[in-house]
Design brief:
The protein is built from four helices and 16 strands. It is α+β, with helices and mostly antiparallel strands. The strands form two sheets. The protein has a nine-stranded antiparallel beta sheet with strand order 3-4-5-8-15-10-11-13-14, with no helix packed on it.
Length: 297
């Protein structure tokens, strides 16, 4: 019996295969289950090319309007839009203004279809062919209680990356990431300026942030802060996370500012699956790794 155990090479091969299968399954499961926010793909129903955000109450400000910050009533469309899709429900604050001759004639805050995917798209325009400068500013965010694959509190240290594809950028200005921790909003120093580009944060702790104080009474919206002196390592729980934009363009009605996002993704650091750990523990208990340990010795 001892001779059979010592020469059982097939068992070693099977054991290695089992380990590889378990680990590969664990890796695939971890990747799928670690997404906290994943707005991407198709949300509009077939035959629908665009749907307006739900802007809420309009507040008149100098040169335009503010649709105030609201974290209880969502901004996403509710008709011809798949509210059951991944991260389909989002919130926000929106604003459009004009400086110069003429007034804003129209504003656009939409989910629209571009090629084979949908895009969060914001713009504004004016009927006057003057030197009017248009300005769009706002915040689109996802709340913790709507995060994917999460049933409890999420700490900043649990997040491995934040990323977005800024698929449309016409004008000058900036796009930044935004995090709310313990009720306070912060904007990232990491930003995209005036170009279509994908950008990301791979380490919140190593990123500098600035306090951005916004509330349901903010009209107009507060300006972009200039002091990015807060370390992400000071964040605790994440209440919400999103994307901030501030874009301007001058030259009349035909030169409106635009910004659009093809996706927004937040990835968490994957945790070990209970099933995988149980199986691996069982393999150790039954001595599957014993031949490997003997070789190491």
């Amino acid at each position: 019996m001892n001779r059979i155990l010592k020469s059982s090479v097939p068992n070693i091969n099977i054991s290695a295969a089992c380990v590889a299968l378990i680990l590969s399954g664990f890796a695939a499961n971890s990747q799928a289950s670690s997404l906290l926010v994943n707005w991407s793909g198709k949300y509009l129903q077939e035959g629908t090319s665009a749907k307006e955000f739900l802007k809420g109450t309009t507040t008149n400000i100098t040169g335009g309007w503010t649709w105030k910050y609201n974290d209880t009533v969502a901004k996403n469309p509710t008709s011809d839009y798949d509210t059951g899709g991944p991260s389909a429900v989002f919130y926000g604050a929106l604003q459009a203004t004009a400086a110069g001759t003429g007034a804003i004639a129209s504003t656009f805050h939409r989910v629209r279809t571009v090629d084979d995917h949908d895009e969060l798209w914001i713009s504004t325009s004016n009927t006057s062919e003057s030197t009017t400068t248009f300005h769009i500013q706002g915040l689109i965010f996802w709340k913790q209680n709507g995060f994917l694959n999460s049933t409890g509190n999420v700490n900043a240290s649990d997040i491995s990356s934040i990323s977005s594809n800024v698929s449309t950028f016409t004008g000058t200005g900036e796009v930044r990431f935004a995090i709310q921790s313990e009720g306070q909003w912060y904007l990232s120093q990491v930003a995209v300026h005036g170009i279509d580009a994908s950008f990301s944060i791979e380490n919140i702790n190593a990123t500098s942030w600035a306090i951005w104080s916004i509330s349901s009474d903010s009209a107009p919206l507060p300006a972009t802060p200039s002091d990015f002196n807060i370390s992400g390592s000071s964040f605790t729980t994440v209440d919400a996370i999103g994307i901030y934009y501030n874009v301007q363009r001058g030259g009349g009605a035909s030169r409106r500012p635009e910004v659009g996002f093809a996706n927004f993704e937040v990835q968490a650091i994957p945790e070990a699956s209970a099933t995988a750990l149980t199986l691996l523990g069982g393999l150790f208990a039954f001595g599957v790794f014993r031949p490997f340990l003997k070789k190491a010795m």
